[in-house]
Amino acid sequence: MVGGASSVVAPWTPVSVDTPKLVKEEGEEKEPEISTGGSSMMFFRLYTQILRQTQVVEATMSVLGGVRAASTTGMVSTLHHRPATHSHHNHLEARSHVETLPGNHDANELVHADLEAMFKEIHEELDFELKSNEELRTASGQLGISKDRLLGSLGQMAKYYFDGQGKAVRPVIAMTLGHAYNHHQCMNQEEKTETANRQRKVAIISEMIHTASLVHDDILDHAETRRGKLAVNQKWDATRSVLCGDYVLAIGAKVLAQLRNEEVLKVLAQVLADLVHGEFQQLQNKENETERFNLYLNKTFNKTASLIAYTCKANAILAKASPDLVEEAFKYGKNVGIAFQLVDDLLDFESSSQLLGKPAAADLKLGLATAPVLFASTEFPELETLIKRRFSQSRDVERAFEFVQKSKGLLQTRDLAKQHCDAAVQAIEPLVESPYKSALINLTDKVLIRQK
Amino acid sequence: MSWPRLIVGVANGLRPGGSAFRPLACTSSFSSYISFPRSHQWNKNVAEAEKLVGFPTSMMSFQNLMDNDVTSMTSHVKKLLGSGHPLLKTLKRLVYHDKNNLQVRGLMVLLICRAFSGQFVDVSDRHADTGILDRQRQLAEYLEMILSAQAIHKSVLNLPNLHDGRDVQGKDDLLELEYGNKIAILGGDYLLAQACVGLANLRNTYISEMISVAIADFTQSEFLGRRDIQGRFIPDPSHITQESWVIRNTLAYGNLMSQGCKSVMLLADMDPQSQELACRLGHNLSLALQAYSELEPFLEETISPREILDLSAAPVLFHLQEDPELLHEVQHPEDNNTENLNTKKILNAIMAKRVGLDRTQDLINIYVQEALEGIQKLPNGQNESGKSAKNLLEEFVAFLRA
User: Alpha carbon A125 to chain centroid distance?
Assistant: First the structure.
């Protein structure tokens, strides 16, 4: 084993436990553990310890208003808080409890076992091509160099981001939706397991495509850190990172092909085209205000929502859902994806850099005008010139930041995100009730209220 | 501005060194290019082959990249003129030498298709004149897109961090180069993504799988051996052998070509024997072409030292086998930058001793021989006036032999 699964359950240390926000978060994250019926005494002790905190949180949340879910942790995976002793077996038991419990289902919890298996599989896939490759085997023999040393850093680089510490948002959505659809299709247990195994491949592909594009993005954006550690282009260098991204993508494409489903292959290949399209759109500048906003939304679909939407679609296809329902899966993913990105753009202005793991106003610094700025520019036309020159002159970033804070831009962005979440919930309305469906609905709330 | 005119601009805009951070003038980045002397005979063969396969090979994948509203690549590249970014040279070579070199790989795949066309089982999208299937033509195109994408990604540079507030000498020039990196990464990604979409549309998951693995193989080849600060190959004793050359180039180019040839057979529902024959032929053709492309610059009358020093090229490696002193020198470039090596000295040594050149020619001959044996086994074309696909392939390959 390459350490994928073990690092998944490794305890996660909060950046700073002292800040009230994080203390709250911790409490909130523990809370769903209880509701999943984890029966060990440890959970009960934990529960009593954090109960008071949780109540504080719930009070805070009712102030925020309009929130269905009890957790405010958003997409932060609760699995990082799992004690390392929490075995696979325990989890499966937990899940059967879950299925009998009404309401309040957490997607991260429900697909925990899937994710654990997923990271392990990703490591195996990335290693397989390095270890089984015929030419490399020959080379290793002829040159007297071990296979691991032969390729120097490629293996390490490729696995670097798949350490189980990421939020794994895309796989969580893909798997939860997959399960919800399997449930809807009235599959027997055997069919369910078999289908879910195939759907997990889609989750794997989504995480690999996402990571490959992150690696290339980070070179483009000169990122210094990613997922709480040195970005791959900093730890190694640009020339190798480009190839590493290509390698991860190629292995993802291979896993995709091995699903032996032509429709799914076609659906997910489109994501690659959309991602690049989105990057090119990011280089464009539009003079006209309406055009600018449309370009922004379109770019948001291409860069973020496309991957989520098409993986949802793929998993609905694998569940053999009707064409209408397959389209609804796409709609769910698309709307959640757009909402997710809108909130991301919002957090760039709202969240402290520590919490987000990247500096605040990072987008402005990259010359990008996201929804909050675009909304704010209707109130403060002064922003126009700044947007057009991509915040390139001195104090542009600071001024734009201030304008946005003064404007209704942040509020409007949140409203727009809310609308997309509502549309997402509406899309999966036709599905029969299940814990997974409930988790999908809760997930839209978490997207809205996440802090990082 | 039309694309060919732009390229002239690119060519004229190339600044000869001199910037604070002088990008490489010639490197392993270009080892993927097969550049042939503009021999009359070769060009005549290309023209005839194109006619035979009914495929206008000129710059299809580039048209796709450059004349596209989405990428507006042309305008991005225009901004790069004068920056000296290796991407410009990569594009220039891909376009200028297009007909003579890179595209011949796609062309050869199609010649193999043409030779087999009389036996195709699945002929649902067969072209009336050539007998080549539409999907085979597309696949040949995707192979070239992938090769171009890889060449473009190889032209990315390592640059110092320009955004941490510190003062960097020659920052404006460096920012231009950084922009070049951006365009190179996105341009390559665009071609790769288009190829993946195209492959998925062929609706054969086995083909997608084989080509994906070949793309992964290419990236692995770039991690073989020691590398300098710009990721360029540095020869060392274990990587100057013929075996290591074969392994590296099989990963880099051989596998894509052999899997591509196998894939076109799959598209026509051909039997496993034909698939295997095409696969082996593809492998041998690609290595023969690659070795020739590495030798060819040394055969020209005038050699510009900055234009041809690719330390991963077979003639360099095979020379170093016999020149331990030079090998030692090459292994330890100043600042781990191979640009600081005395290119002229290395060139002169290779040209004087000739052993590197002779061994490379021997290597070419091995693969030419293998390829010819494969070509013999191809079916004889039907109803072909003039030369058959088989004849043309033979002529192409024989050209590579000394």
Answer: 20
Looking at the domain assignment, is residue A351 inside a domain? Answer: yes
Reported ipTM: 0.89
Q: Which residues contact B276 (CB under 8 A, 6 or more apart)?
A: B262
Which residue range is the domain that position A117 belongs to?
Answer: 4-127+147-449
Total domain count, chain A: 1
More confident residue, A49 or B252: B252
Q: How close, in Å, is residue A178 to chain B by CA atoms?
A: 22
Q: How far is A167 from chain B (nearest CA, A)?
A: 25
CA B166 to chain centre: 39
Report the pLDDT averaged over residues A273-288. Answer: 86
Residue A170 in domain: yes
Residue A141 included in any domain: no
Task: Find the residue in A nearest to B238 (Cα).
Answer: A143
3-class DSSP assignment, residue B226: strand
A435-449 helix and A169-184 helix, angle to the nearest 10 degrees: 150
**A38 in any annotated domain:** yes
Cβ-Cβ contacts under 8 Å between A and B: the total is: 168
For residues A140 and A124, what is the distance between their CA atoms, to the nearest angstrom? 20
Q: Select B3-14+25-400's CATH number: 1.20.1290.10, 1.10.600.10, 1.10.10.10, 3.90.1170.20.
A: 1.10.600.10
Distances (CA, A) of B69 to A161, A275, A325, B73, B392: 33, 16, 33, 8, 38
Task: Tell me the pLDDT tens digit for each residue of A2-12.
Answer: 333 333 333 33
Asked if B234 is an interface residue toward chain A (Cβ–Cβ < 8 A), one would say: no
Average of per-residue pLDDT across B346-355: 93
Domain with residue A74: its CATH number is 1.10.600.10
Whether B185 and A151 lie within 8 Å, measured CB to CB: no
| For chain B, domain boundaries | 3-14+25-400
For residue A209, which of A110, A308, A283, A143 has the smallest C-alpha distance? A308
Find chain B residues with C-beta within 8 A of A235's C-beta. Answer: none
